[in-house]
Structure formats: structure tokens, C-alpha cells
Amino acid sequence: MTKQITPAIRPAVVEDLGGVLALFEQVAAEGSWIGTEPGFDRDLYLRTWVERMAVGPGALIVAAESDAVVGVIDLREGTRGAWDLGMLVAQNRRGQGIGAALLHAAIDCARDCGIPALTLGVFAHNSAALRLYEKSGFVPTGQIEPHRRRQSGEIWDTIMMERRLDESERSISRE
Q1: Are 84 and 119 contacting, i.e. CB atoms less than 8 angstroms apart?
Q2: What angle do CA 149, 78, 130 make, to 5 degrees?
Q3: In the chain, domain spans
Q4: d(CA 37, CA 74)
Q5: CATH fit for domain 8-164, picks 3.40.630.30, 3.50.50.60, 3.40.50.150, 3.30.830.10
Q6: In angstroms, how far is the first alpha carbon of the chain from the final one?
Q7: How would residue 56 be classed by pLDDT, with cut points 50, 70 and 90?
Q8: CA-CA distances (angstroms) from residue 101 to 6, 119, 148, 157?
Q9: For the chain, what percent of residues have pLDDT higher than 90?
Q10: DSSP states of 148-163 as a string?
Q11: Residue 34 — very low, low, confident or very high, per pLDDT cuts 50/70/90?
Q12: pTM (2 d.p.)
């Protein structure tokens, strides 16, 4: 039995971007969890991540083990003072607490930066992500029906969620 390595959760550095792109391509190819599908503009995404990193430490956070990026979460300025987040975890590492660790790191970073709330959109069929977000204090604020048309013609609904941040608390349960 091979023991899984616990990845380091840390702000991304430029050297991580190849791994972030590879992970993004893998999740896009799965065709189930993110709106982006294969054939996207790789250079555009790389430039976007470099811009996020320039915002400051924590705007792009990775879960890294050895030379591999196995998870990433990014924070970007949204509306009403809230910041939006998006997260990816490698298929073979899901269900091992990496998503929760990334989410808690993002919550702590946002709180430390004085961001009043985090928002996100999650596809209605992604029950594992919905459970994680709810367990981490996010609450549904609405649903967009229909929202995302896929190359296959399917249309996915998106559930919008929000987590208000209280400066007096640190991240909730890290179970």
C-alpha cells in the first residue's frame, strides 16, 4: 500500500504555472466540473494567472507535492466588495482533503486582506463540491437556470454561493 503524500498548500509561484495549466487541461478534458472545455486559449489563462499572482500572495494558491500541482484555488475581485473563487483538484486526489485545505487557505487569505465575503458558482450536478462549500460555511444565494451551454449541447445550471467573513474568526472546522 502506497502512502499518499500530503501536499503543501502555499501561494503559487511562476514555476507552478505549467503545473496549474496541466491540471486545468486535465479537468477541462473531464468535461464535468468546469465550464471551460478543451480548445481554450492557453496563453490567455496563463496571463490571467500571472495577473492574479501580481495581486499578492494568496490570490492563486496551489496544493503541490514534489514537482506536481495537484490542486489550485484562485481569488479574483468580484462585485460588492466580495471576491470570487474557483478551484480545481486532480481527479486522482479528490476526496482526500485537498479541496478543503485549499478552501480554508483562501478563506484565511481573504480575511487577512479585509475582503468581506467570498462568492462562487458551482454546477448543480457537482454534489461533492456543494457539500464541501456548505461544510465550509458557504450558503446558496441563487441559481442560474439554464446557465452554461456545453459543446455537447447540454445546458448546466449554476448554483451561486457566498461566505461572509468575520475578522474575529479563523477558518471554520478543518476536519
Answers
A1: yes
A2: 55
A3: 8-164
A4: 18
A5: 3.40.630.30
A6: 24
A7: confident
A8: 11, 17, 28, 26
A9: 58
A10: EE-TTS-EEEEEEEEE
A11: confident
A12: 0.85
